[in-house]
Amino acid sequence: MNDHDSRNDSSSERSRASSGAPGTPPDGGKRKRPDGPGGGILMGRPFGVPVYVAPSWFLVAALITWVFGDQLNRVLPELGGLNYLVSLFFAVAFYASVLVHELAHTVAALHYKLPVRRIQLQFFGGSSEIEKESETPGREFVIAFVGPLLSLVLAGIFYLGMRAVEPGTVPGVLLAGLMISNLIVAAFNLLPGLPLDGGRMLRAVVWKITGKPMSGTVAAAWVGRALAVAVLIGLPLFTHSGALGTPGQEIGGVQSVTDALLAAILAAIIWTGAGNSLRSARLREHLPELAARTLTRRAVPVEADTPLSEALRRANEAGARALVVVDGQGSPTALVREAAIVGVPQHRRPWVAVGGLAQELTDGMRIPADLVGESLLEHLRTTPATEYLVVEDTGAIYGVLSTADVERAFVAAMAR
Predict the structure, then answer these.
(1) Which of 192, 200, 272, 325 is the most buried (most CB within 10 A)?
(2) Alpha helices, DSSP H only, in 287-390?
């Protein structure tokens, strides 16, 4: 199944257009994670975006192969053992359709200059991880809608293909299965609750009406939770009602347990995704509180050959908590690392120069004092370091920003 969720991650708002996988909360400006760990097997980079297949996909592919193989055996018994090979092809083709769905989200996001971290195919579908939120409700609506739209287009293509081949043949059965599966994907994702694509569309509509993204998220998240309850209770009853074209069944037996388990998994995915979307939206309200100017530690300038004990004495007198190494003209050249200071025993500090404990400044380690919210977190994510030199527009030293201070402030914002 496919959905479209939104979340913060590290330094920025991260929107995630996904197939049945909920969003997760942000990591608060920690170092940028590589694409590989946790991503699964890299399959390619369409449009420059890495596509991964998670290990859980193989479990689902095996399940689809088994279930579709049994159905194929009833329709085409002459295939014999080949029916499972055909059904494996169906599983791969179905997930290729899911990939097209995700690529639709990705292309739309890239069109609006929103970076996409990766696409991942996994249990119950896939996810397109978009690293920033849409700037307008209209763009949010378009990015969410193109996924189900492409699934409907694929269903139409498979329908035309099915009409062009002889019924009751392997191509006919495969095309019919792909048509139906893409219709189900589109219909499921159009349900108006987060984290599904329909939930993103509902969020965009409420956002447009109220002018408040948070109002849209709250409305779509609670509809998503209601939808999760409906799936948990209604799906097993629906499958036993005969509404799918099969004779009604009494509730009980292995089939009932399987239906209930499937409903519980889907409901858990929707409920968790809705909750994560709501938490991420509430966190965004507090992002402006993360300001470089308010989180920066006051610093004193010292020359590289200054003994550590003398530098710390000057810092204590000035009420400062950081040291900046400057050259003879007073220009900053390095930052004295807090961890390095702690590692020097008290009795050795008069004999250790601060220059030996300092990290040379790079361009990425200089940040403007006016950076706030997502812009601040984005800078820290793209240029990982333990400390940063905060400067005014004039180039004057304002102080030193510690990553640890930002992370603590971020965690506090999450707690609220």
Answers:
(1) 200
(2) 292-295, 308-318, 338-342, 373-382
Neighbours of 51 (CB within 10 A): 23
Say how far apart CA 280 and CA 16 lie, in whole Å: 12
Alpha-carbon span 166 to 215, nearest angstrom: 52
Could you tell me the two tokens for 308? 């550590």
8 A C-beta contact, residue 143 and residue 15:
yes
Q: Is the dihedral of CA 404, 407, 409, 412 positive or negative?
A: negative
Write out the DSSP string of 36-73.
STTT-EEEE-GGG--EEE-HHHHHHHHHHHHHHHHHHH
Q: Are 293 and 398 in contact (CB under 8 A)?
A: yes
Q: Which residues contact 390 (CB under 8 A, 6 or more apart)?
A: 292, 293, 296, 367, 368, 369, 397, 398, 399, 400, 401
Q: Chunked in runs of 10, what are the mean pLDDT values of the chain (416 residues)?
A: 43 38 34 49 93 89 84 81 88 94 96 93 84 91 97 97 90 93 94 93 96 91 93 79 50 63 85 86 76 94 95 94 93 93 93 94 91 86 91 92 90 74
Alpha-carbon span 61 to 95, nearest angstrom:
9
The C-alpha atoms of residue 399 and residue 307 are separated, in whole angstroms, by 20
Q: What is the pLDDT of residues 98-130, one digit of tens each?
A: 999 999 999 999 999 999 999 999 877 888 999
The stretches of 76-169 forming alpha helices (DSSP H) are: 82-111, 137-164
Q: What is the pLDDT of residues 131-189, one digit of tens each?
A: 888 999 999 999 999 999 999 999 999 999 999 998 888 899 999 999 999 999 999 99
> Residue 328 carries which DSSP code?
T
Return d(Cα 149, Cα 160) in angstroms, integer. Answer: 17
Per-residue confidence (pLDDT) for residue 239, from 0 to 100: 67
Q: What is the pLDDT of residue 120?
A: 92
Distance of CA 353 to the CA centre of its chain: 45
Residue-level pLDDT at 255: 62
Residues facing residue 7 across a β-bridge: 14
Round to whole Å and give the CA distance between 17 and 319: 48
From CA 304, how far away is CA 229, in angstroms rounded? Answer: 64
User: Cα dist. 64→25, 39, 91, 148 in Å?
Assistant: 31, 22, 6, 21
